[in-house]
Amino acid sequence: MTTAPSDLTDTAVFLRLGTATLYEASKLDCFLPPRIRPVWPGAAVVGRALPVTTAPADNLPLHIALEHASPGDVLVVDGQREACGYWGEVLTAAAQARGVLGLVIDGGVRDVDQLRERGFPVFSSSVAVRTTVKDDTGTVGDPITLGTATVSRGDLVVADTDGVVVIPQASVASVLERGRAREAAEAGYMSRIAGGELTLDIYGFRPAGTD
Predict the structure, then answer these.
(1) Surface-to-core class of residue 99, CB atoms within 10 Å of its CB (0-12 exposed, 13-18 middle, 19+ buried)
(2) pLDDT tens-digit profile of 63-85?
(3) Where are the beta strands (DSSP E) in the chain?
(4) What is the rounded average pLDDT of the residues 202-211?
(5) 62 vs 104: CA distance, rounded Å
(6) What domains does the chain contain, in order, with CATH numbers?
C-alpha cells in the first residue's frame, strides 16, 4: 500500500521515481542505513519528516511524538538500533488517527501482520517482541543523524522496497527535476538496449582500443 500527504505536490512522481533514482539524482548522502527495511511487502510512503530520538528500549518518545505530529508526517526515529518492540498495533492506530503516514525507525517493531492489515507503512532495522520501558522523554522535532544522513523536521521522506531517502527541504524541487531527467534518460537507454546496443557503448564505458 502507498500512502501520501495531501499537501505535498508531485507525491505520485516521487513514488514512481523511487528511492534509487532520487538518491542518484540528489548527489547527496541522503540515504538511511540499508539495515532499515520495509516490514511488510509493498510498503511505501512519502511524507514530511518528524525526527525522534529514544533512549535504548524506551518508547515514551514515540507516544510524545504523536502529540506533536501533524497530518502528512512520517516519524523518523533513532531507536539506537535496539531490537525491541518500540512500535506495534496500538501506536499504529493512534498514529493513523492523527494522520501520521508511516514510521521509519532504526530499532525494532512488532505486530507486523496487524501493521500490514492496517496498511501502515513501517520501515525498521528489526522485528522484535522484547518489551520497552517508558522512562526517558528523548527528543521530538530536533535534527537526528542516521548513517550519513541528517534528518530535520519537514524534510521529505521517501521509502520503498529499495530503501529510505530523506531529502532536505531546500533540495526537494531540484532533486525532483533531476530525477525526472534521469528517468527520461533511462527510458532512452532501455530503448537502445532493446535495439541491441551494449551498456558499454551506451554509457561510454568501453576502454579505448577494444572496439
Answers:
(1) middle
(2) 999 999 999 999 999 999 999 99
(3) 2-3, 37-38, 44-53, 73-78, 102-109, 122-127, 139-140, 144-146, 149-151, 156-160, 163-167
(4) 86
(5) 12
(6) 2-168 (3.50.30.40)
Chain position carrying cell 532512452: 188
- 0.85 cut: is pTM over it? yes
Q: Flag whether pLDDT at 2 surpasses 80.
A: no
CA angle (57, 29, 159) in 5-degree steps: 60
Residue-wise pLDDT tens digits, 123-150: 999 999 999 999 999 999 999 999 999 9
C-alpha cell, 52: 525522534
Quick one: average pLDDT of 151-170?
98
DSSP letter for 147, please. T
State whether the Cα torsion 204-22-32-152 is positive or negative.
positive
> Which pLDDT does position 208 carry in this prediction?
83
pLDDT band at residue 10, thresholds of 50, 70 and 90?
confident
Closest CA to 107 of 120, 92, 88, 93: 88
Q: How many CB atoms lie within 10 A of CB 203?
A: 9
Give the span between the Cα atoms of 109 and 58, in whole angstroms: 12
Q: Which residues contact 205 (CB under 8 A, 6 or more apart)?
A: 199
Q: Is the Cβ–Cβ distance between 189 and 73 less than 8 Å?
A: no
| Under 8 Å between Cβ of 50 and 140 | yes
